[in-house]
Amino acid sequence: CFSYVIIYLHYGVCLIYASSVRTHVNVDPAKLKSLRQRWSVKPSEMSKKTLNPIRAIVDGMKLTPNPEKPMIALSIGDPTVFGNLPTDDTVLQAMKEAIDSHKYNGYAPSVGYQKSREVVADFYSCPEAPLDGKDVILTSGCSQAIELAISVLCNPGDNILVPRPGFSLYKTLAVSMGIQVKHYNLLPEKSWEIDLQHLESLIDDKTACLIVNNPSNPCGSVFSREHLHKILSVASRNCIPILADEIYGDMVFPGCDFQPLAPLSSDVPILSCGGLAKRWLVPGWRMGWILIHDRNDIFGTAIREGLVKLSQRILGPCTVVQGALESILNDTPPEFYQGTISFLKSNSEICYSELSTVPGLNPVMPSGAMYIMVGIEMEHFPDFQNDVEFTERLVTEQSVFCLPATAFEYPNFFRIVVTVPEEMMIEACIRIREFCARHYRPRSQDSHELDQ
Ligand SMILES: Cc1ncc(COP(=O)(O)O)c(C=O)c1O
């Protein structure tokens, strides 16, 4: 009889050869015993260790809005949800042309088309930190860039240093890979600068990488040049490479300067992660990148080859978006970026000035990105145990949903997304004020002082 040998070639081409070898089916009785008697399909250890704290917290909350008030969600870091911040026509046109060209329907190299890599390199290259195509890896969103960067720098048992409060994905990825996470503190009273002493105290011989997120989610803070120099000094003294999450790069308010980290570095090797999601307002297009900055050849070819190998696990980002990149990066008019920034600044100012006069709340004015953090003086709100209960009841009574900052490892704060339409922001602030007035209790000492 014939037996068939099936050979899978790369990307799904499948050849079937028939051979005329006679086969005998001899079943070894010992082997029969090892066959499973019943089904037992269990989730892998990795899947069990993969935890998104935002989901874990939000799914555990009782979010039942007040039926008399329309819901206002100030929790979603997606600038497209309300339709008030469309991307630029140039960006849409670039995408349409890429589709109509019929040139971008196939597989691209796993690190992206060479031409598209060069376009990104030219966009970000500067004399102090020059880049060319080989220094760019295109990824599926900034999230995959972060995943590749952590994967290439760390082994199970190593640790990474991440900001607190900070974007939760770093921990989600690291823990699922068996990498320990050490949180370094950001200081709200210093506009969320890094507590550098604390940062340095966490470093040990297993520290594989320092993650710096600037501008910051959830703080909306932007580090000064001086502060970035100090961060680089810590990394340099301890020989720790940096993963710079700069997805909000250039999204800073007028009067404030965004300084990418790499041009300031004389020796520390840096993987800078970014993408189209925020600045170009198309998070669903899933286009991100890693910029490899290694002027002193510390990463060398080994880290570059490691990144290429890891990128081959899943073939890079959508090829149509890669085809549109040149026009998106080079032709989007400056007025588009300015328009987004002035909207974000104006909404941040409304939110900040409204909430800073609410007894019991302490908002911290941001300088960029899309967020504002608000401190809660929990001792004045005895009705609630913590920020999670506070924000849960804010939904029940006022139909306003803000993310409790416990989701960013920072209790007693909540985060507001400032991309919502202005009238919604104003209405939300009015409702938050009403909610706080209802639940605010002066401490007995305060009320005693008031009596005098
Ligand atoms: C700080 C930070 N880094 C990375 C990302 C992920 O970006 P992307 O949607 O391109 O994967 C986000 C998304 O919210 C973010 O806030």
Automatic annotation (TrEMBL):
Instruction: Quote the SUPFAM superfamilies the UniProt record gives.
Output: PLP-dependent transferases
What this protein catalyses is: L-tyrosine + 2-oxoglutarate = 3-(4-hydroxyphenyl)pyruvate + L-glutamate
A molecular-function term among this protein's GO annotations: L-tyrosine-2-oxoglutarate transaminase activity
* Modified positions (N6-(pyridoxal phosphate)lysine) in chain numbering: 278
Q: Matching Pfam families, A to Z? A: Aminotran_1_2
Identify the metabolic or biological route this protein is part of: Amino-acid degradation; L-phenylalanine degradation; acetoacetate and fumarate from L-phenylalanine: step 2/6
Residue span, Aminotransferase class I/classII large domain: 70-432
Cross-referenced CDD domains: AAT_like (cd00609)
Q: Where does the source fall among the domains of life? A: Eukaryota
Q: Does the keyword Transferase apply?
A: yes
Enzyme's top EC category: transferase
The GO annotation for biological process reads:
L-phenylalanine catabolic process; L-tyrosine catabolic process
Q: What is its EC number?
A: 2.6.1.5
List, separated by semicolons, the cofactors it needs.
pyridoxal 5'-phosphate
Family annotation (Gene3D superfamilies)? Aspartate Aminotransferase, domain 1 (3.90.1150.10), Type I PLP-dependent aspartate aminotransferase-like (Major domain) (3.40.640.10)
Q: Which keywords appear in this protein's UniProt record, sorted alphabetically?
A: Aminotransferase, Phenylalanine catabolism, Pyridoxal phosphate, Transferase, Tyrosine catabolism
According to its UniProt entry, the function of this protein is described as: Transaminase involved in tyrosine breakdown. Converts tyrosine to p-hydroxyphenylpyruvate.
Task: Cite the record's note on assembly.
Answer: Homodimer.
Family statement: Belongs to the class-I pyridoxal-phosphate-dependent aminotransferase family.
Q: Mind telling me what this protein is named?
A: Tyrosine aminotransferase
Q: Which organism is it from?
A: Cyprinus carpio
Taxonomic classification: Eukaryota, Metazoa, Chordata, Craniata, Vertebrata
